Amino acid sequence: MDNLDYLPFYFMTTTIVILFLKRFKEDWFAPKFDMEYFHQCLTYKQDNNTSNPKPNNAKVLHYETQAQKNSYKLTLFYFFIITFVSCSVVANHLSVNCDLPADKTALNTFIKGFLPCLIIAIMYWFLIIFPGLKNIFANVFGYLIISISSNNRIATILKNDYNITKYSSTLTKLLQNEFILINRLSPTNFYDILTEFIQEQNTEKTTLTKPNEKNIQNLYNAIYFKDNIGEFFWILYTCIFVSTLICFYVSLNNVITQPSTTSST
Length: 265
Description:
The chain has eleven helices and no strands. It is mostly helical. It has one domain. Helix 1 packs antiparallel against helix 4. It is elongated and about 75 Å long. The relative contact order is 0.17.
């Protein structure tokens, strides 16, 4: 079987490997949770004292910027691998199956092997500009993967860390529908939503102490992984489309076959 037939498999395998790297190297690709800033936000809202300075989120921005840089580096490496594999497979197919000069083989490799891969780069750019697009898959597939453990972490944070045992009617409904509870959180609103959420449930107005940092960091990482799953499915489906497009486009060159040998009579 021609290597060209395996191109969709190569693309999908590389995309899956990137997702697993983001999962098992969370300290590289997920920002560190700033417990000090989170606790300051809670106490600032609880005291409701406008004379106090607002919490400084400089460290949060630093952590997010560093994780974003690592993610961009991994994405560039991923795009390099994808284009290298695509060009190599296309060049090999053209050299074996088509009788073309070297310059035309190189030109066809660039046009049919490299240019279609730009569709993947454009898709990734759209996900950066419009991160809400990830929720289409993150709130379905991502939720299915992280919902059970994440819901338990939220309950642990409320009960054990903040001693909040009397839930409001709103939380009771949310606990019965994990889909709403988990999907309210995203990397862009994690601090704001969780702070507001805990304040709403603190109906007895008890003094909020610092929770177990590991519990919230694990929840934070899970929400980032949910977001990565949404990105993964967009890129995966785009890769399947691009690899299929390349296979179809390159196969058209098969009409230019190697010179046939004629038998002399």
